[in-house]
Protein backbone atom coordinates (compact mmCIF):
# COMPACT_ATOMS: atom_id res chain seq x y z
CA UNK A 1 0.00 0.00 0.00
CA UNK A 2 2.89 2.37 0.56
CA UNK A 3 4.40 2.11 -2.93
CA UNK A 4 2.74 4.32 -5.50
CA UNK A 5 3.72 4.10 -9.16
CA UNK A 6 4.44 7.76 -9.84
CA UNK A 7 5.36 8.88 -13.37
CA UNK A 8 7.14 12.25 -13.36
CA UNK A 9 6.09 14.33 -16.38
CA UNK A 10 3.58 11.62 -17.14
CA UNK A 11 0.73 11.68 -19.58
CA UNK A 12 -2.19 9.62 -20.80
CA UNK A 13 -3.79 9.10 -24.16
CA UNK A 14 -7.53 8.81 -23.76
CA UNK A 15 -9.91 7.47 -26.36
CA UNK A 16 -13.65 6.85 -26.02
CA UNK A 17 -13.54 7.42 -22.27
CA UNK A 18 -10.80 4.85 -21.70
CA UNK A 19 -7.08 5.03 -21.13
CA UNK A 20 -5.17 3.86 -24.23
CA UNK A 21 -1.61 4.68 -23.16
CA UNK A 22 0.01 5.80 -19.90
CA UNK A 23 3.64 6.92 -19.86
CA UNK A 24 6.00 9.80 -20.53
CA UNK A 25 4.11 12.85 -21.77
CA UNK A 26 6.57 13.71 -24.63
CA UNK A 27 6.42 10.19 -26.05
CA UNK A 28 2.64 10.17 -26.00
CA UNK A 29 2.39 13.59 -27.62
CA UNK A 30 4.71 12.52 -30.47
CA UNK A 31 2.48 9.58 -31.30
CA UNK A 32 -0.86 11.34 -31.01
CA UNK A 33 -0.60 14.52 -33.03
CA UNK A 34 -4.35 14.88 -33.65
CA UNK A 35 -5.34 14.57 -30.02
CA UNK A 36 -6.73 17.49 -28.04
CA UNK A 37 -4.14 18.34 -25.36
CA UNK A 38 -5.12 18.93 -21.74
CA UNK A 39 -2.12 20.43 -19.97
CA UNK A 40 -2.19 19.67 -16.24
CA UNK A 41 0.47 22.35 -15.73
CA UNK A 42 2.80 20.18 -13.64
CA UNK A 43 0.04 19.42 -11.14
CA UNK A 44 -0.63 16.01 -9.56
CA UNK A 45 -2.94 13.74 -11.57
CA UNK A 46 -4.55 10.90 -9.63
CA UNK A 47 -7.16 8.24 -10.25
CA UNK A 48 -10.56 9.61 -9.17
CA UNK A 49 -11.35 8.75 -5.56
CA UNK A 50 -13.58 5.71 -5.09
CA UNK A 51 -15.76 6.31 -2.02
CA UNK A 52 -16.83 2.81 -0.98
CA UNK A 53 -19.28 3.72 1.81
CA UNK A 54 -21.90 6.47 1.59
CA UNK A 55 -25.53 7.04 2.55
CA UNK A 56 -26.07 9.40 -0.39
CA UNK A 57 -29.89 9.63 -0.47
CA UNK A 58 -31.82 11.12 2.46
CA UNK A 59 -34.07 14.08 3.20
CA UNK A 60 -33.12 17.07 5.31
CA UNK A 61 -30.26 17.38 7.78
CA UNK A 62 -29.61 16.44 11.41
CA UNK A 63 -28.72 19.87 12.71
CA UNK A 64 -30.55 19.30 15.99
CA UNK A 65 -28.51 16.14 16.69
CA UNK A 66 -25.38 18.11 15.81
CA UNK A 67 -26.21 20.82 18.30
CA UNK A 68 -27.17 18.31 21.02
CA UNK A 69 -23.82 16.55 20.60
CA UNK A 70 -22.10 19.90 20.94
CA UNK A 71 -23.88 20.20 24.30
CA UNK A 72 -22.50 16.81 25.35
CA UNK A 73 -25.16 14.22 24.46
CA UNK A 74 -23.97 11.02 22.76
CA UNK A 75 -25.10 9.46 19.46
CA UNK A 76 -26.85 6.69 21.40
CA UNK A 77 -28.63 9.10 23.80
CA UNK A 78 -29.85 11.25 20.93
CA UNK A 79 -31.14 8.19 19.05
CA UNK A 80 -32.97 6.95 22.16
CA UNK A 81 -34.61 10.38 22.54
CA UNK A 82 -36.13 10.28 19.04
CA UNK A 83 -33.27 11.79 17.01
CA UNK A 84 -30.76 9.64 15.17
CA UNK A 85 -31.51 7.49 12.13
CA UNK A 86 -35.24 7.49 12.92
CA UNK A 87 -35.62 11.25 12.48
CA UNK A 88 -34.08 11.01 8.99
CA UNK A 89 -36.39 8.07 8.20
CA UNK A 90 -39.46 10.21 9.01
CA UNK A 91 -38.29 13.00 6.70
CA UNK A 92 -37.24 10.58 3.95
CA UNK A 93 -40.60 8.77 4.04
CA UNK A 94 -42.39 12.12 3.69
CA UNK A 95 -40.28 13.20 0.71
CA UNK A 96 -41.28 12.42 -2.87
CA UNK A 97 -38.95 10.66 -5.28
CA UNK A 98 -38.28 13.93 -7.10
CA UNK A 99 -37.55 15.83 -3.87
CA UNK A 100 -35.05 13.15 -2.86
CA UNK A 101 -33.53 13.25 -6.33
CA UNK A 102 -33.06 17.02 -6.17
CA UNK A 103 -31.33 16.90 -2.78
CA UNK A 104 -29.16 13.95 -3.84
CA UNK A 105 -28.07 15.77 -7.02
CA UNK A 106 -26.70 18.50 -4.80
CA UNK A 107 -24.76 15.86 -2.83
CA UNK A 108 -23.45 14.43 -6.12
CA UNK A 109 -22.06 17.84 -7.10
CA UNK A 110 -20.22 18.00 -3.76
CA UNK A 111 -18.57 14.60 -4.37
CA UNK A 112 -17.43 15.63 -7.85
CA UNK A 113 -15.92 18.85 -6.49
CA UNK A 114 -13.82 16.81 -4.03
CA UNK A 115 -12.32 14.63 -6.77
CA UNK A 116 -14.52 11.56 -6.25
CA UNK A 117 -15.60 9.78 -9.43
CA UNK A 118 -17.30 6.63 -8.05
CA UNK A 119 -19.35 6.17 -4.88
CA UNK A 120 -21.15 3.28 -3.27
CA UNK A 121 -24.62 4.45 -2.09
CA UNK A 122 -26.86 2.71 0.43
CA UNK A 123 -30.60 2.84 0.96
CA UNK A 124 -31.69 2.58 4.59
CA UNK A 125 -33.71 5.69 5.46
CA UNK A 126 -37.02 4.26 4.19
CA UNK A 127 -37.55 1.06 6.21
CA UNK A 128 -40.78 0.13 4.38
CA UNK A 129 -40.86 -1.79 1.11
CA UNK A 130 -42.05 1.24 -0.87
CA UNK A 131 -39.70 3.73 0.74
CA UNK A 132 -36.63 1.50 0.35
CA UNK A 133 -37.52 0.95 -3.33
CA UNK A 134 -38.03 4.71 -3.71
CA UNK A 135 -34.48 5.39 -2.47
CA UNK A 136 -32.97 2.69 -4.69
CA UNK A 137 -34.81 4.12 -7.71
CA UNK A 138 -33.37 7.56 -6.89
CA UNK A 139 -29.90 5.97 -6.84
CA UNK A 140 -30.61 4.40 -10.24
CA UNK A 141 -31.72 7.77 -11.65
CA UNK A 142 -28.66 9.53 -10.24
CA UNK A 143 -26.55 7.01 -12.14
CA UNK A 144 -28.41 7.84 -15.36
CA UNK A 145 -28.73 11.61 -14.91
CA UNK A 146 -25.40 12.64 -13.35
CA UNK A 147 -21.79 11.84 -14.32
CA UNK A 148 -20.95 10.25 -10.95
CA UNK A 149 -20.76 6.44 -11.09
CA UNK A 150 -22.79 4.92 -8.29
CA UNK A 151 -22.76 1.37 -6.92
CA UNK A 152 -26.09 0.61 -5.17
CA UNK A 153 -26.38 -1.20 -1.82
CA UNK A 154 -29.60 -2.28 -0.10
CA UNK A 155 -29.51 -1.41 3.62
CA UNK A 156 -33.11 -2.15 4.62
CA UNK A 157 -31.66 -3.44 7.90
CA UNK A 158 -30.38 -0.03 9.00
CA UNK A 159 -32.68 0.31 12.06
CA UNK A 160 -35.83 -1.28 13.42
CA UNK A 161 -38.64 1.13 12.43
CA UNK A 162 -40.71 2.52 15.28
CA UNK A 163 -43.86 0.72 14.13
CA UNK A 164 -42.03 -2.59 14.73
CA UNK A 165 -40.29 -1.65 17.98
CA UNK A 166 -42.24 -4.29 19.91
CA UNK A 167 -41.72 -6.96 17.21
CA UNK A 168 -38.30 -6.58 15.62
CA UNK A 169 -38.61 -10.10 14.23
CA UNK A 170 -41.57 -8.95 12.13
CA UNK A 171 -39.31 -6.37 10.48
CA UNK A 172 -36.55 -8.93 9.89
CA UNK A 173 -39.15 -11.13 8.10
CA UNK A 174 -40.30 -8.14 6.02
CA UNK A 175 -36.70 -7.49 4.92
CA UNK A 176 -36.14 -11.16 4.05
CA UNK A 177 -39.51 -12.10 2.55
CA UNK A 178 -40.58 -8.91 0.79
CA UNK A 179 -37.81 -6.37 0.39
CA UNK A 180 -34.87 -8.57 -0.65
CA UNK A 181 -36.74 -10.51 -3.37
CA UNK A 182 -37.99 -7.23 -4.95
CA UNK A 183 -34.57 -5.58 -4.76
CA UNK A 184 -32.99 -8.62 -6.41
CA UNK A 185 -35.63 -9.13 -9.09
CA UNK A 186 -35.60 -5.45 -10.07
CA UNK A 187 -31.78 -5.48 -9.97
CA UNK A 188 -31.82 -2.37 -7.77
CA UNK A 189 -28.71 -3.28 -5.74
CA UNK A 190 -25.41 -5.13 -6.13
CA UNK A 191 -24.71 -5.38 -2.40
CA UNK A 192 -26.66 -5.94 0.82
CA UNK A 193 -25.55 -4.33 4.08
CA UNK A 194 -26.79 -4.61 7.70
CA UNK A 195 -26.18 -2.35 10.73
CA UNK A 196 -25.00 -5.10 13.08
CA UNK A 197 -25.07 -3.46 16.52
CA UNK A 198 -26.80 -3.62 19.91
CA UNK A 199 -30.18 -1.96 19.59
CA UNK A 200 -30.17 -2.38 15.81
CA UNK A 201 -29.65 -5.90 14.36
CA UNK A 202 -27.95 -8.55 16.48
CA UNK A 203 -25.61 -11.22 15.14
CA UNK A 204 -28.40 -13.77 14.60
CA UNK A 205 -30.65 -11.34 12.73
CA UNK A 206 -27.73 -10.00 10.69
CA UNK A 207 -26.66 -13.53 9.74
CA UNK A 208 -30.19 -14.41 8.64
CA UNK A 209 -30.65 -11.31 6.50
CA UNK A 210 -27.21 -11.48 4.90
CA UNK A 211 -27.53 -15.21 4.16
CA UNK A 212 -30.85 -14.58 2.42
CA UNK A 213 -29.23 -11.77 0.40
CA UNK A 214 -26.32 -13.99 -0.58
CA UNK A 215 -28.72 -16.69 -1.77
CA UNK A 216 -30.32 -14.10 -4.06
CA UNK A 217 -26.93 -13.29 -5.61
CA UNK A 218 -26.15 -10.07 -3.74
CA UNK A 219 -22.64 -9.46 -2.42
CA UNK A 220 -22.24 -8.45 1.21
CA UNK A 221 -20.97 -5.49 3.24
CA UNK A 222 -21.56 -5.06 7.01
CA UNK A 223 -21.62 -2.10 9.42
CA UNK A 224 -19.53 -3.92 12.02
CA UNK A 225 -18.24 -3.16 15.54
CA UNK A 226 -18.88 0.60 15.29
CA UNK A 227 -20.15 1.30 18.81
CA UNK A 228 -19.43 -2.03 20.53
CA UNK A 229 -17.28 -5.06 19.72
CA UNK A 230 -20.31 -7.20 18.94
CA UNK A 231 -18.68 -9.76 16.64
CA UNK A 232 -19.49 -8.01 13.35
CA UNK A 233 -16.03 -8.50 11.83
CA UNK A 234 -16.16 -12.20 12.65
CA UNK A 235 -19.61 -12.49 11.10
CA UNK A 236 -18.30 -10.78 7.96
CA UNK A 237 -15.54 -13.40 7.80
CA UNK A 238 -17.96 -16.29 8.39
CA UNK A 239 -20.22 -15.07 5.55
CA UNK A 240 -17.30 -14.18 3.25
CA UNK A 241 -18.56 -10.60 2.97
CA UNK A 242 -16.62 -8.35 0.58
CA UNK A 243 -16.16 -5.76 3.35
CA UNK A 244 -16.60 -5.10 7.05
CA UNK A 245 -17.07 -1.38 7.61
CA UNK A 246 -16.35 0.94 10.59
CA UNK A 247 -14.47 -1.51 12.91
CA UNK A 248 -13.76 1.14 15.57
CA UNK A 249 -14.11 -1.54 18.27
CA UNK A 250 -12.67 -4.54 16.39
CA UNK A 251 -9.87 -6.35 18.27
CA UNK A 252 -7.01 -8.57 17.09
CA UNK A 253 -9.32 -11.59 16.80
CA UNK A 254 -11.60 -9.73 14.43
CA UNK A 255 -8.56 -8.59 12.42
CA UNK A 256 -7.28 -12.19 12.17
CA UNK A 257 -10.72 -13.44 11.09
CA UNK A 258 -10.94 -10.84 8.29
CA UNK A 259 -7.47 -11.80 7.12
CA UNK A 260 -8.24 -15.52 7.16
CA UNK A 261 -11.40 -15.13 5.08
CA UNK A 262 -10.43 -12.32 2.70
CA UNK A 263 -12.68 -9.52 4.01
CA UNK A 264 -11.60 -5.96 3.20
CA UNK A 265 -11.82 -3.48 6.11
CA UNK A 266 -13.48 -0.15 5.22
CA UNK A 267 -12.45 2.48 7.77
CA UNK A 268 -14.58 5.61 8.26
CA UNK A 269 -12.65 8.13 10.35
CA UNK A 270 -15.06 10.94 9.41
CA UNK A 271 -17.74 9.40 11.63
CA UNK A 272 -15.38 9.15 14.63
CA UNK A 273 -14.38 12.78 14.13
CA UNK A 274 -17.89 14.15 13.58
CA UNK A 275 -19.29 12.28 16.60
CA UNK A 276 -16.59 13.97 18.67
CA UNK A 277 -15.00 10.63 19.60
CA UNK A 278 -11.36 9.62 19.77
CA UNK A 279 -11.43 5.83 19.28
CA UNK A 280 -10.28 5.43 15.69
CA UNK A 281 -10.02 1.91 14.20
CA UNK A 282 -6.69 0.12 14.35
CA UNK A 283 -5.55 0.88 10.82
CA UNK A 284 -1.87 0.17 11.45
CA UNK A 285 -2.52 -3.31 12.84
CA UNK A 286 -4.76 -4.10 9.90
CA UNK A 287 -2.14 -2.94 7.39
CA UNK A 288 0.63 -4.84 9.23
CA UNK A 289 -1.62 -7.94 9.10
CA UNK A 290 -1.64 -7.59 5.30
CA UNK A 291 -5.26 -6.47 4.94
CA UNK A 292 -6.08 -4.31 1.88
CA UNK A 293 -7.54 -1.44 3.93
CA UNK A 294 -10.06 0.95 2.36
CA UNK A 295 -10.94 4.44 3.64
CA UNK A 296 -14.27 6.12 2.85
CA UNK A 297 -16.40 9.10 3.93
CA UNK A 298 -19.52 7.34 5.34
CA UNK A 299 -21.30 10.46 4.02
CA UNK A 300 -24.61 10.64 5.95
CA UNK A 301 -26.60 13.32 7.81
CA UNK A 302 -26.01 11.87 11.29
CA UNK A 303 -22.53 10.61 11.98
CA UNK A 304 -20.49 11.89 9.03
CA UNK A 305 -21.80 14.88 7.12
CA UNK A 306 -18.87 15.24 4.73
CA UNK A 307 -18.42 14.16 1.10
CA UNK A 308 -14.71 15.04 1.14
CA UNK A 309 -12.21 12.25 0.51
CA UNK A 310 -9.28 14.69 0.96
CA UNK A 311 -10.57 15.31 4.51
CA UNK A 312 -10.66 11.55 5.07
CA UNK A 313 -7.05 11.28 3.84
CA UNK A 314 -6.09 13.96 6.35
CA UNK A 315 -7.82 12.05 9.18
CA UNK A 316 -6.25 8.76 8.04
CA UNK A 317 -2.76 10.26 8.31
CA UNK A 318 -3.19 12.37 11.44
CA UNK A 319 -5.46 10.10 13.51
CA UNK A 320 -4.86 6.55 12.22
CA UNK A 321 -1.16 6.97 11.40
CA UNK A 322 -1.44 5.86 7.82
CA UNK A 323 1.14 7.29 5.44
CA UNK A 324 -0.08 9.59 2.65
CA UNK A 325 0.73 6.87 0.10
CA UNK A 326 -1.25 4.27 2.06
CA UNK A 327 -4.17 6.69 2.23
CA UNK A 328 -4.10 7.15 -1.56
CA UNK A 329 -4.05 3.38 -2.13
CA UNK A 330 -6.90 2.92 0.37
CA UNK A 331 -9.07 5.51 -1.36
CA UNK A 332 -8.48 4.44 -4.96
CA UNK A 333 -7.41 0.94 -6.01
CA UNK A 334 -8.26 -0.88 -2.76
CA UNK A 335 -11.66 0.81 -2.72
CA UNK A 336 -12.25 -0.18 -6.35
CA UNK A 337 -11.58 -3.85 -5.54
CA UNK A 338 -13.95 -3.67 -2.56
CA UNK A 339 -16.71 -2.67 -5.02
CA UNK A 340 -15.82 -5.50 -7.40
CA UNK A 341 -14.47 -3.01 -9.95
CA UNK A 342 -10.72 -3.41 -9.55
CA UNK A 343 -10.37 -4.22 -13.25
CA UNK A 344 -12.13 -1.03 -14.42
CA UNK A 345 -11.33 1.86 -12.07
CA UNK A 346 -9.07 2.84 -9.15
CA UNK A 347 -5.79 3.29 -11.05
CA UNK A 348 -4.58 4.96 -14.25
CA UNK A 349 -3.76 1.94 -16.40
CA UNK A 350 -4.29 0.97 -19.99
CA UNK A 351 -7.85 -0.23 -20.60
CA UNK A 352 -9.33 1.33 -17.48
CA UNK A 353 -11.91 4.14 -17.47
CA UNK A 354 -10.41 7.63 -17.79
CA UNK A 355 -11.65 8.71 -14.34
CA UNK A 356 -9.07 11.07 -12.87
CA UNK A 357 -8.57 14.30 -10.93
CA UNK A 358 -5.99 17.03 -11.29
CA UNK A 359 -4.99 18.46 -7.91
CA UNK A 360 -3.63 21.94 -7.47
CA UNK A 361 -0.32 20.80 -5.96
CA UNK A 362 3.08 19.41 -6.98
CA UNK A 363 3.45 16.55 -4.47
CA UNK A 364 0.65 14.01 -3.85
CA UNK A 365 1.25 14.24 -0.08
CA UNK A 366 -0.15 17.76 -0.13
CA UNK A 367 -3.64 16.31 -0.64
CA UNK A 368 -3.58 14.85 2.88
CA UNK A 369 -1.46 17.64 4.36
CA UNK A 370 -3.45 20.79 3.58
CA UNK A 371 -6.95 20.35 4.90
CA UNK A 372 -10.35 21.95 4.98
CA UNK A 373 -10.58 23.51 1.51
CA UNK A 374 -11.15 22.20 -2.01
CA UNK A 375 -7.91 21.30 -3.78
CA UNK A 376 -9.29 19.48 -6.82
CA UNK A 377 -8.40 21.67 -9.80
CA UNK A 378 -10.42 19.64 -12.30
CA UNK A 379 -12.12 16.26 -12.38
CA UNK A 380 -12.79 13.91 -15.31
CA UNK A 381 -15.09 10.90 -15.68
CA UNK A 382 -14.79 8.72 -18.79
CA UNK A 383 -12.57 11.40 -20.30
CA UNK A 384 -15.14 14.20 -19.87
CA UNK A 385 -14.50 17.11 -17.53
CA UNK A 386 -17.16 17.16 -14.79
CA UNK A 387 -15.70 19.84 -12.52
CA UNK A 388 -13.28 22.74 -12.75
CA UNK A 389 -12.19 25.08 -9.95
CA UNK A 390 -13.24 28.64 -10.82
CA UNK A 391 -10.37 31.05 -11.47
CA UNK A 392 -9.72 33.66 -8.80
CA UNK A 393 -11.31 37.01 -9.63
CA UNK A 394 -8.41 39.36 -10.31
CA UNK A 395 -8.10 42.74 -8.57
CA UNK A 396 -11.64 42.92 -7.31
CA UNK A 397 -10.97 46.36 -5.83
CA UNK A 398 -10.83 47.70 -9.38
CA UNK A 399 -14.19 46.24 -10.30
CA UNK A 400 -16.91 48.75 -11.17
CA UNK A 401 -18.23 50.40 -8.04
CA UNK A 402 -20.91 48.34 -6.37
CA UNK A 403 -23.21 49.33 -3.58
CA UNK A 404 -23.48 46.76 -0.82
CA UNK A 405 -26.44 46.90 1.50
CA UNK A 406 -26.34 45.19 4.87
CA UNK A 407 -29.73 45.17 6.41
CA UNK A 408 -28.80 43.58 9.74
CA UNK A 409 -25.56 45.25 10.77
O1 LIG B 1 -22.51 4.52 9.14
N1 LIG B 1 -24.03 3.29 11.66
C1 LIG B 1 -25.03 3.33 10.97
N2 LIG B 1 -25.24 4.15 9.95
C2 LIG B 1 -24.56 5.38 9.76
C3 LIG B 1 -25.15 6.45 10.55
C4 LIG B 1 -26.44 6.81 9.99
C5 LIG B 1 -27.09 7.96 10.66
O2 LIG B 1 -26.76 8.32 11.82
O3 LIG B 1 -27.98 8.52 10.00
C6 LIG B 1 -23.07 5.25 9.94
O4 LIG B 1 -22.44 5.86 10.82
FE1 LIG C 1 -22.49 3.94 7.28
Walk me through what this model shows:
The protein has 409 residues and is of the alpha/beta class. The protein has 2 domains: 10-47 and 349-388, Urease, subunit C, domain 1 (Roll); 49-338, Alpha-Beta Barrel (TIM Barrel), CATH 3.20.20.140. Helices cover 38% and strands 18% of the residues. The chain has an 8-stranded parallel beta sheet with strand order 4-5-6-7-8-9-10-11. The chain has a 4-stranded antiparallel beta sheet with strand order 3-12-13-14, with no helix packed on it. A two-stranded antiparallel sheet has the order 1-2. The longest helix is centred in the middle third of the chain and has 18 residues, at 168-185. The structure holds N-(iminomethyl)-L-glutamic acid and fe (iii) ion. N-(iminomethyl)-L-glutamic acid binds at residues 55, 84-85, 88, 195, 223, 226, 271, 298, 300-304. Fe (iii) ion binds next to loops.
Helix content: 25-40%
Heterogens = N-(iminomethyl)-L-glutamic acid, fe (iii) ion
Report the portion of residues in β strands: 15-25%
What is the first-to-last residue Cα distance?
A: 53 Å
Please report the first level of CATH classification, the CATH class of the largest domain: Alpha Beta
- Derived from helix and strand composition plus strand pairing, the structural class reads alpha/beta
Strand line-up in the sheet with most strands:
4-5-6-7-8-9-10-11
Q: What's the structural domain tally?
A: 2
Unreliably modeled segments: none
CATH topology of the largest domain: TIM Barrel
Oligomer: single chain
**Fourth-tier CATH superfamily name of the largest domain:** Metal-dependent hydrolases
- Count of DSSP-assigned helices: 16
Radius of gyration from the alpha-carbon trace, in angstroms: 22 Å
Amino acid sequence: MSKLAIIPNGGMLIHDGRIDIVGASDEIEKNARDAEVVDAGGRVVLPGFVDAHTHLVFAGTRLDDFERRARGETYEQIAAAGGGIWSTVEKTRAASESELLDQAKKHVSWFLRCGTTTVEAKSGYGLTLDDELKILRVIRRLNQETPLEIVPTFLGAHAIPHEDRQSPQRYVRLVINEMLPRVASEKLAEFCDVFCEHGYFDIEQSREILTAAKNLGLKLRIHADQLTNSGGAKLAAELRAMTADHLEKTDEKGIAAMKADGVQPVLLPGSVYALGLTGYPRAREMIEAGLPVVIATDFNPGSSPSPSMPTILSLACTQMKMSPAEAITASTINAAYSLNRGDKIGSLEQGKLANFSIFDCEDFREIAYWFGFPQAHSVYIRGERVHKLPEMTQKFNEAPTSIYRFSHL
